[in-house]
Write a structure and sequence with these properties.
Structural class: alpha+beta
Strand order of the largest sheet: 13-12-11-17-16-15-14
Radius of gyration: 59 Å
Number of strands: 43
Distance between the termini: 86 Å
Shape: flat
Largest sheet: 7 strands, mixed
Mean pLDDT: 76
Low-confidence stretches: 26-42, 113-150, 272-280, 402-409, 415-420, 765-774, 790-831, 1210-1214, 1268-1288, 1417-1428
Helix content: 40-55%
Strand content: 15-25%
């Protein structure tokens, strides 16, 4: 049987797994010969046909030969037995199908699943088994035997072994487009058989109606409801819910295309939930599926669908991705709000599983009297819910009984939401479990449809951050409307809640640690400030105790007793200050440790308060502040008098300290239960951010200016703790720049006092504060008076200053000792310091006056209470030294120092800091800030005087040095100005010289160019006449031709003279420059020699070039134009002096050396003095001739200006005495030298050597344009090359732009004679108008540079700009100029010219340039008009 007769062959071609066909035609009768289990010993397993996937089986390495052999034998023995026709060989499942003619076996393979199933061969049942078989099996067999009439018994047996196969056998197919079962083709039956035996989900769809059949594995795709009546129906009817999505694929499969998709989303209607129309049965499903066309005899009769459901894998991957994103949210270094913001961003990325999210924060409220727990939830954030929606209220309150919290369950369901709650918060919070909220219904209307087009019907609530009391957050998540809420969904949400709880715990731990660290840091800063303040408070009194004490001891006996008493008073006052400071610190320590025991006595608090307040009246009124005291009398309060005294006096003292103007009011009032003391001021006030910290120990408000900066930072803290020990309450109300009110409430009665601390009898005179000895209040009042001490400074010397001070000030300030005064009364031979002015800044009046008394005996002194006043004085007056305290109100010492150093007028002032901060760090900080010295309190008076003297002397020296530096700087500036002026003048002179040189070059070259061009024109005319006239006039023409040659020789000679004169002028004005570029050495020298080919041929001179082979391809880096200028000069001389010799030979040779030898005996070397030549690469170019030679005397003067070796000969042969002079200077600029070797009558050898560098080869476009601007030295032009062109080619139009009429006419004639069409313009503007006119535009422009109206460079720039704007093609332009400097040539190229021709030029060279720019070769040049 031919292979193409296999019915399912077309189907198997697109089968995705291996399939092949074996031929068993030779063994067709074996099953009849050998019974039910024949042995096919001669079967060949080599396939006669395979599909594309067969290679996978061959390369898998599985030994399947024996399995296939046994399978084929079994299939022949029992072709209708499903088990006999299948076998497993890991990882493959093989199925054998014997064709109807039994000549071929079709083997299909498919990959097995995860189960490792071993299938045993099925045997025929024994008679006993037949008797015991169930009645249903017997009925099936009877039914099968009845169906066998229209179906092959083997196929019917195979079909009946599966549930779907039995349904196919029973179904009435005559009612379908497929027709009755008996009419089905063998190919169709084979395909159905293969599908039923398929180990995986498999369906077949036949005909344009796509009538379906499937195997048992496919029933799961249909679901319980659809499988009942799906058989025989079309694909459209069965899968109506997603048919519109895949119908295009179905039609493409019916058209013969193979379709395959992976993880494809299909919304399938599987099972509805209940009978309610609102219930939904659509389910999110994912499949790997394929449509493979079924072909029979080349015609598509349907397609098969193999499907593998991947829903679980896709959803798991999606949910794991959400959990992964949630785990990447950093819980460290963020606060709670930031963490939840990032967490919601991670959850928002999964809209399919979480269509909406609502998050509430939970706050537990105090329990009600009926023991019900209350919670307040506030909206934290939401996703997918519009603003103001009914299901997202901003807040809600809930309550539950204490017993409710004991109930625990993993999950509960709320079918409806309670009326008093939008969501079942109580159940979620108290139960601390997941709550499923069903039947959201129309209340979810308005929610965003995130991920799905269907509204959410259910939601889940779960707690986050669960503690013993309540969770921190409750999260509400909408459930996927297209997925069931199963165990996997619940576990996913539990993991989300667990991860959020874990992250929240980390955030809370971090916040706690951060808060604790901030508290510790704040305490550490407070301690640092405290110790700094305490140091200041301790060292200031010590300075005023130790300093005067040392002065008293050092004073002679004759010192007046009044001066000693003054010092002792100061010492006593500050000793008491130290004593009170220590007592305050000890009192605070006892209060904080709880060791303070108050004794409560009945006290007339009104009278006591008035007495304590009166202590400050004098100081407050002297300070310009209105002071009011209003105290109600008549009520006794049990108090500890000492403690109450500290409270009242501390509050009043603090009010006065920070109230510079306005009023202070002290009041004592009563309520029914309390006595209320209040002190209100109109001072600077306290910022709101600081109100919670002012009663903390060691805390001081920064940038809070008062009358003094002194204080330990424990005053208000001591007051607060003292009020607490009295059973009262201290509060403060304050507003910045308005004022503050401190209020103390003390309870009346004795109920708050322990009995053991109660003393019923008041002490004698307890209500009169003045009857007590000097106590805390009196000391604070005395300190307040000190804030108002006079800040007048001594500005005169010694006794005069003392006499000018008031008596009170003299009593309060220590006197400077005579011994200290004598210590600074040294001779000042070098420094005049008698009139030095010292500025003292210190807020402590006693210390300020002590420093004034010390310094005023030797210097003028001005003292100020803070840095701001001192700065104002220093900026308006000259002073010599500043002595400043560090801690002062308004402006401290460091800020004062920065202000001084930031101004140039005061930056050099000596500045000494006085500080209570000791230690190397504090000293280093002060010196780094810019202080000249740092003096630690307490200090000795001698030390202060010595340091002040030293820094005054250093300051005077510094000012003198600065004055000298300024003078020297002024002189340097003036010198630099003069130098810059000279440079400018020199540059101006150089430019003027350049202009002169350029003008001379232009004016010399223009007439020479006209002569040259006219001579060439005459020469061409003579050549034409010679061809037309007879021999009788040839003599005349020869004479005329000789005259032309003489003219050309004269022009060439004049051109060289012009070049040499210009070079000589450049040398004289230092304008000659070197421009190094890479160039090919051998080709460049060879090009120069070609210029003399005609001349040396006419003069019968043999000209040779010799060089080593390695130099023929070398590229070097130097100045080729200057090198060739030297070579041309040397060749010109050699030709001139060789012409008259019998032997006429000139040799040019090239060499390179690495080491320069000393010159030989007969060699004359020309070089700069003291010039050295280190080893390196040197180029040596020599010119050797057979001329008359030079004597030693002639050689020595050879390179001098205007010097000639043979004056009589040179004046007729063209020498002018500048050529070799120019060569010598060019070689000097190239750092080289010249060797001259010659003897009389033996010729000369000129050899110049210069250092060079090797260079990389350059492309033709990279070669420098200097090669096309070399002026030919041969006076005879080279003959015109053959110029032919097709007669169809038009003449090229050349625009000549020239203001010189002669040059204009000559150039027109020459170009017209060579076949060009010409037009002229007299200036750049006229030329530009012609070039921009499309009707008059030329093919090329020859443009002079120096012209009236508009010069050539300007016209070319405007032309290029116009071309760029209008996108016109580039018009070739050649600059024709007499300016030959390299800079001028480069300027022309930069202006937009394509080439530069330097006058005088040969017309043939110019024509060659034109042809090159127009893209015309010599063989295709334009013809003359006469030839057209």
């Amino acid at each position: 049987m031919p292979l193409q007769d296999v019915g399912a062959l077309a189907f198997l071609t697109h089968y995705p797994f291996p399939a092949w066909v074996l031929s068993v035609e030779t063994y067709a009768d074996l099953r009849h010969d050998y019974g039910p289990e024949p042995v096919l010993t001669g079967l060949s397993l080599k396939p006669i046909w395979t599909n594309g996937a067969y290679a996978e089986l061959r390369t898998s390495g599985v030994d399947w030969q024996e399995t296939v052999h046994n399978l084929v034998q079994s299939a022949f023995a029992q072709p209708t037995d499903l088990h006999a026709c299948s076998a497993y060989h890991s990882p493959w499942c093989l199925v054998a199908t014997v064709t109807q003619n039994s000549k071929q076996v079709v083997i299909t393979a498919s990959r097995r699943g995860h189960e490792d199933v071993t299938v045993a061969r099925r045997k025929e049942p024994s008679p006993e088994q037949e008797q015991s078989a169930p009645q249903s099996d017997k009925t099936l067999r009877k039914h099968h035997s009845r169906l066998s009439i229209s179906l092959d018994p083997g196929i019917a047996e195979i079909w009946s072994q599966s549930e779907t196969g039995r349904d196919i056998l029973k179904f009435a197919w005559e009612s379908t487009p497929l027709g009755p079962l008996s009419s089905w083709s063998s190919e169709l039956k084979t395909i159905v058989t293969t599908g039923l035996l398929w180990p995986e989900r498999f369906s077949m769809w036949f005909g344009p109606e796509m009538i379906g059949m499937w195997n048992d594995a496919y029933l799961k795709v249909l679901g319980p409801r659809k499988r009942v009546d799906a058989l025989g129906r079309s694909f459209r009817d069965i899968f109506s819910e997603f048919f519109d999505t895949v119908k295009g694929y179905c039609y493409r499969a019916l058209a013969g295309e193979v379709i395959c998709h992976r993880k494809n989303l299909l919304i399938m209607d599987r099972e509805r939930v209940g009978d309610d129309e609102s219930s939904w049965g659509l389910e999110e499903c994912y499949h790997d599926w394929s449509f493979v066309p079924i072909r029979v005899n080349g015609e598509v009769i349907g397609f098969v669908n193999q499907s593998t459901e991947t829903t679980a894998a896709v959803i798991a991957e999606r949910r794991i991705g959400t959990l992964r994103a949630l785990s990447l949210v950093p819980p460290i270094s963020v606060d709670r709000a930031t963490y939840f913001t990032h967490a919601l961003e991670a959850l928002e990325a999964n809209p399919l599983d979480m269509p909406f999210i609502i998050m509430y924060r939970v706050h537990q409220l105090p329990a009600l009297p009926n023991h019900r727990i209350r919670y307040h939830v506030t909206l934290y954030s939401k996703i997918g819910v519009p603003e103001g929606h009914v299901l997202a209220p901003l807040s809600s309150k809930t309550r539950a009984s204490l017993s409710a919290s004991s109930s625990a369950a993993s999950e509960s369901t709320a079918d409806a939401i309670a009326d008093e709650e939008v969501w079942p918060f109580t159940e979620t919070i108290v139960g601390q479990k997941i709550v499923l909220v069903q039947n959201l219904g129309s209340r979810a209307k308005g929610f965003e449809h995130r991920g799905w087009d269907h509204a959410c019907r259910t939601a889940v609530m779960f707690p986050v951050g669960v503690t013993e009391e309540a969770p921190s957050v409750v999260v509400i998540v909408g459930l996927n409307p297209c997925r069931p809420y199963d165990d996997e969904y619940r576990e996913f949400l539990e993991l989300v809640g667990s991860q959020l709880s874990s992250g929240l715990t980390s955030v809370l731990n971090f916040e706690t640690a951060k808060k604790k660290a901030e508290e510790l840091a704040s305490l550490d800063r407070a301690k640092t400030v405290f110790f700094g303040n305490v140091s200041h408070e301790l060292r200031n009194p010590l300075t005023l105790i130790l300093g005067p004490l040392e002065d008293i001891i050092a004073e002679p006996n004759q010192t007046p007793i009044s001066a000693v008493r003054t010092n002792l008073k100061v010492m006593l006052r500050h000793a008491r200050r130290l004593h009170q400071l220590v007592n305050s610190l000890l009192d605070f320590a006892r209060l904080e440790a709880g060791r303070f025991i108050a004794s409560f006595r009945p006290v007339n608090i009104g009278s006591l308060t008035a007495d304590l307040a009166s202590l400050f009246r004098s100081a407050i009124e002297r300070g310009g502040v209105h002071y009011t005291v209003v105290c109600e009398e008549g009520r006794e309060v049990f108090l500890d008098i000492d403690a109450y005294e500290k409270v009242v006096t501390n509050i009043i003292s603090n009010a006065f300290k920070y109230c510079l103007t306005g009023a202070i009011e002290v009041r004592l009032e009563y309520t029914r239960t309390d006595a209320i003391f209040s002190c209100a001021d109109t001072g600077c006030g306290i910022p709101e951010s600081e109100l919670g910290n002012i009663f903390h120990r060691f805390h001081r408000v920064e940038n809070h200016f008062g009358r003094s900066i002194e204080g330990s930072g424990v005053g208000l803290a001591l007051t607060y703790e003292t009020v607490k020990s009295l059973g009262g309450k201290l509060t403060v109300h304050s507003e910045v720049n308005v004022g503050s009110t401190f209020m103390v409430s003390l309870p009346l009665g004795t109920s708050h006092i322990p009995p053991e601390r109660l003393v019923r009898e008041p002490p004698s005179g307890a209500t009169k504060a003045v009857n007590f000895p000097m106590r805390y209040g009196a000391w604070l009042a005395e300190e307040a008076n000190g804030w108002l001490a006079s800040d007048s400074s001594g500005d005169s010397r010694s006794s005069a200053t003392a006499e000018s001070r008031s008596a009170s000030e003299r009593d309060s300030a220590p006197s400077a000792s005579t011994s200290s005064s004598a210590a600074v009364a040294d001779e000042r031979e070098n420094m005049m310091l008698d009139n030095a002015l010292v500025v003292v800044a210190d807020d402590n009046a006693d210390l300020r006056h002590y420093c004034v008394n010390l310094l005023s005996s030797n210097y003028h002194v001005r003292a100020f209470v803070d840095g701001q006043d001192a700065l104002d004085f220093v900026l308006e007056n000259d002073c010599d030294l500043i002595l400043s305290d560090v801690q002062m109100p308004r402006m401290g010492g460091y800020k004062f120092l920065r202000e001084i150093r930031s101004r140039s007028s005061t930056a050099l002032l000596p500045f000494i800091l006085l500080s209570a901060a000791a230690g190397s760090e504090a000293r280093t900080e002060g010196l780094d800030a810019g202080a000249d010295d740092y003096l630690v309190k307490p200090f000795a008076s001698k030390e202060l005087l010595a340091r002040v003297k030293t820094h005054l002397e250093l300051g005077a020296m510094r000012r003198a040095l600065e004055s000298r530096v300024q003078e020297r700087t002024r002189l340097l500036v003036e010198s630099e100005t003069r130098l810059l002026q000279q440079i400018a003048e020199s540059e101006h002179m150089r430019k003027q010289q350049e202009i002169v040189v350029d003008l001379t070059s232009h004016e010399l070259r223009n007439p020479l160019n006209a002569i040259w061009q006219n001579a060439e024109l005459v020469e061409v005319a003579l050549t034409r006449l010679r061809s037309r006239l007879g021999k009788e006039v040839s003599g005349v023409l020869d004479e005329a031709d000789e005259a032309v040659q003489n003219i050309l020789l004269s022009v060439a000679h004049q051109t060289r003279i012009a070049d040499d004169i210009l070079n000589f002028s450049k040398i004289s004005m230092s304008l000659l420059t070197i421009h190094k570029v890479p160039f090919h050495l051998h080709e460049t020298v060879r090009d120069v020699l070609r210029m003399w080919e005609i001349e040396v041929r006419e003069k019968d001179i043999r000209l040779e070039l010799t060089c080593d082979d390695e130099l023929k391809d070398i590229w070097v880096f130097s100045d080729p134009q200057r090198i060739l200028q030297i070579l041309i000069n040397l060749l010109t001389n050699a030709i001139r002096f060789t012409t008259d010799m019998t032997v006429r030979k000139i040799t040019v040779f090239l060499r390179t050396v690495m080491h320069i030898e000393q010159p030989g005996e007969n060699v004359f070397r020309v070089m700069d003095e003291n010039q050295a030549f280190p080893d390196g690469l040197y180029l040596r170019i020599g010119v050797k001739d057979s001329g008359s030679g030079l004597s030693p005397e002639e050689r020595e003067k050879l390179f001098e200006r205007f010097s000639q070796a043979h004056p009589s000969k040179d004046q007729f042969s063209g020498g002018h005495g500048l050529g070799l002079f120019v060569c010598r200077h060019i070689i000097s600029l190239l750092n080289g030298f010249i060797d001259v070797e010659s003897a009389k009558g033996a010729g000369c050898t000129f050899l110049f050597s210069i250092p060079i560098e090797r260079a990389e080869p350059q492309s033709e476009r990279q070669q420098q344009p200097w090669k096309t601007r070399l002026l030919g030295r041969s006076p005879r032009p080279s003959p015109d090359p053959t110029r032919t062109i097709s007669s169809a080619m038009r003449p090229r139009h050349i625009l000549i732009v020239e203001d010189n009429i002669i040059n204009q006419k000559v150039l027109c004639r020459q170009l017209q004679a060579r076949g060009f069409h010409t037009s002229v313009a007299n200036d750049g503007q006229e030329a530009l108008d012609r070039m921009l006119d499309d009707d008059m535009a030329p093919d090329l422009v020859l443009m002079d540079i120096e012209m009236p109206v508009k010069d050539g460079k300007t016209a070319c720039r405007e032309l290029r700009e116009s071309e760029a704007r209008s996108s016109k093609p580039r018009l070739p332009a050649v600059a024709v100029t007499g300016n030959a400097r390299e800079e001028q040539v480069q300027d022309c190229l930069d202006a937009g010219f394509d080439e530069v021709a330097i006058k005088p030029y040969r017309i043939q060279d110019l024509v060659t340039t034109i042809d090159s720019l127009l893209g015309v070769t010599n063989a295709t040049s334009p013809t003359r008009p006469s030839e057209q």
